[in-house]
Amino acid sequence: MNLDPNLRMARLFCKDDGRTTALAEMPLLIRTGVPLPLRLWVRGGRIETFMDGRPVIDVTDTRYARGGIGLKVFVGRSACRGTFVRAP
């Protein structure tokens, strides 16, 4: 999930063959300088994202049966703590 406080937008991206595609976008007021607990649930083709326990994005993308995750910070600072992947 991409959080952009300047655009006031949360976005979810998919990267395929070097191309990045937005799967979903949601207007969202994002405060900077405060911890933001994030959670992503992926079950089958359904992807749900949560920020501070509240739903943000709920989208379905069935192109892939498996894949990977990535963490990225662009023009900003971030600290990741308690990052894990759990398979059912």
Give a structural overview:
By secondary structure, the chain is mainly beta. Helix content is 0%, strand content 44%. It has no helices and 6 strands. The chain has strands spanning 2-4, 9-16, 19-27, 38-43, 46-51, 54-60. The strands form 2 sheets. It has a 3-stranded antiparallel sheet, with no helix packed on it. It is globular. The model has no long low-confidence stretch (mean pLDDT 87).
Briefly summarize what is shown:
Helices cover 0% and strands 44% of the residues.
What is the strand content? 35-45%
How helix-rich are the residues, as a percent range? under 10%
Shape: globular
- What's the number of helices? 0
| Estimated radius of gyration | 13 Å
The largest β sheet comes out as: 3 strands, antiparallel
Strand order of the largest sheet: 1-2-3
First-last Cα distance: 21 Å
**What is the succession of H and E elements?**
EEEEEE
- What is the arithmetic mean of pLDDT? 87
Structural class: mainly beta
Tell me how many strands there are. 6
pLDDT < 50 runs, ≥5 residues: none
Topology, pairings included?
Blueprint: E1 2-4, E2 9-16, E3 19-27, E4 38-43, E5 46-51, E6 54-60
